[in-house]
Amino acid sequence: MSGLPSEEREPFSLFSQWLSEAEKSEPNDPNGMAIATADTDGLPNLRMVLLKEHDARGIVFYTNFESAKGRELLANRQAAALFHWKSLRRQVRFRGPVSIVSEEEADAYFSSRPRDSRIGAWASQQSRELESRFALEKAVAREAARFGFGDVPRPPHWSGFRLSPLEIEFWQDKPFRLHDRLVYRRETLDQPFVTLRLYP
């Protein structure tokens, strides 16, 4: 298992390597990440989501835009993300602006989801008060009947966000809490990253 490089390298390939290693060792959801946002009062909010795509443009996850995180990200297009892989004693943090993925990207990912998940995206009024579990099951049954055996298109309120990092930090556990921390940082998205190491 390789740790942080002795000579700094391009961060997205390093992230891909670490994610690939996590996929071999993590028992559940190696692509799980915590997404931090803030509401209109500036109060932070945090929840787990699943990474669905990643490349040099950033990391992508999907959600209902009418959910708490959807509303918060539409109002304040900035976020932070954290991957923690306990089996590898590693974590990676991303911080930066978010943008909405293209219609084509969102349609392609939505069509790849299981049919029941696509129906659930129509049925769930995510983050809003639910009177009972039966009400949710009734909504799912109603949407399933509405679509029958036909195609289940992507709801207009459901799409993806791309977090394009201004900062990426790689953290590797080391003995005596003398952890290894490597940071890639840039002022704007069109600039190259600079690298620095931090005290643990």
The top-level CATH class is Mainly Beta
Beta-sheet strand percentage? 25-35%
Shape: elongated
Tally of separate domains? 1
Structural class estimated from helices and strands = alpha+beta
Question: How many DSSP-defined strands?
Answer: 10
Separation, N- and C-terminal Cα atoms: 21 Å
Radius of gyration in whole Å, from Cα?
19 Å
CATH superfamily: Electron Transport, Fmn-binding Protein, Chain A
Would you kindly provide a written description of the structure presented here, covering whatever features stand out?
The chain is about 30% helix and about 30% strand. It is an alpha+beta fold. The chain has a single domain (about 10-110, about 155-195), classed as Roll (Pnp Oxidase, Chain A), CATH 2.30.110.10. Strands 1, 2, 3, 4, 5, 6, 7, 8, 9 and 10 form a ten-stranded antiparallel β-sheet that branches. A hairpin with a 2-residue loop joins strand 3 and strand 4. The chain starts with 10 loop residues before the first helix and ends with a strand.
Write the layout of secondary structure elements.
Blueprint: H1 11-25, E1 32-38, E2 44-50, E3 53-55, E4 58-64, H2 68-75, E5 78-85, E6 90-100, H3 103-112, H4 115-123, H5 133-147, E7 158-163, E8 167-172, E9 180-185, E10 194-197
Helix pairs in contact: 4-5
Throw out a few tags for this protein.
single chain; 200 residues; alpha+beta; Pnp Oxidase, Chain A; 5 helices; 32% strand; elongated
Short description:
With 200 residues, this protein is an alpha+beta fold. It has helices spanning 11-25, 68-75, 103-112, 115-123, 133-147; strands at residues 32-38, 44-50, 53-55, 58-64, 78-85, 90-100, 158-163, 167-172, 180-185, 194-197.
